[in-house]
Amino acid sequence: MAEAAPGGSGSGPLSPALSLVLASASPRRRELIGRLGLTPDRIAAADIDETPLKAEAPRDYARRMAREKAQAAADPQAHVLAGDTVVAVGRRILPKAEDINTARTCLTLMSGRRHRVLSAIALLAPDGTLRERLSETVVRFKPLSRDEIDAYLAGGEWHGKAGGYAIQGSAEGLIAWISGSHSGVVGLPLFETRALLRAAGFAVG
């Protein structure tokens, strides 16, 4: 169980231990939150419609997805942490690649140019209070040859990944430049996550 942050010197009794639900089945998010010294008490993958709204901006979409995932997993006895990561080229939201042709299209589009990775998080308290943060990272792939794209796709890391790549895998060797949160690109921006959890009373590293 996650621990409550201790009070200051001379304060009253410590608050009861806080319970944390992670609204994601992603092993990457579980591993990342572990870096903050926390283990979720429960995993509750949120099943929601992830279709972008017409003309919805990438930032708004990422925030909405994180918020709706948290609300879908709401628990009157626990805080619920949810996140969503969106890869965008301009205002175009790239899909999660479920087939190799989609992954190829995404990588070809991003080859040699910058794209944004928007990683939104939402923390829903038992009383319904919602805290939100957004991390924005700019990433640029080197110009990718067809052979490089084919080799990356053959490894299978692209499957189910926003934009068709996973920065924590071999794709990192194809990235020429990054500005922002590496953990945000992986799937959970630790700086923003730590701030939200501390504000809610969790003891984090």
Total of DSSP H or I helical runs spanning 4+ residues: 6
Number of strands: 7
Largest sheet, strands/sense/barrel: 7 strands, mixed
The average pLDDT score comes to 91
Helical content band: 25-40%
Number of domains: 1
**CATH topology, which one?**
Maf protein
Overall geometric form: elongated
Rg, Å, rounded: 18 Å
CATH class: Alpha Beta
Q: What is the CATH architecture annotation?
A: Alpha-Beta Complex
Give the class from helix and strand content and strand pairing. alpha/beta
Could you spell the SSE succession in H and E letters? EHEHEEHEEHEHH
What separation lies between the terminal Cα atoms? 15 Å
Strand content bin: 15-25%
Low-confidence stretches: 4-16
Function: Nucleoside triphosphate pyrophosphatase that hydrolyzes dTTP and UTP. May have a dual role in cell division arrest and in preventing the incorporation of modified nucleotides into cellular nucleic acids.
EC number: 3.6.1.9
Pfam family, one: Maf
InterPro entries: ITPase-like_fam (IPR029001), Maf-like (IPR003697)
Q: How would you describe what is shown here?
A:
The chain has 205 residues and is α/β, with parallel strands linked by helices. The protein has a single domain, classed as Alpha-Beta Complex (Maf protein). Helices cover 28% and strands 22% of the residues. Strands 1, 2, 3, 4, 5, 6 and 7 form a seven-stranded mixed sheet that branches. The radius of gyration is 18 Å and the shape is elongated. The model is unreliable at 4-16 (pLDDT under 50).
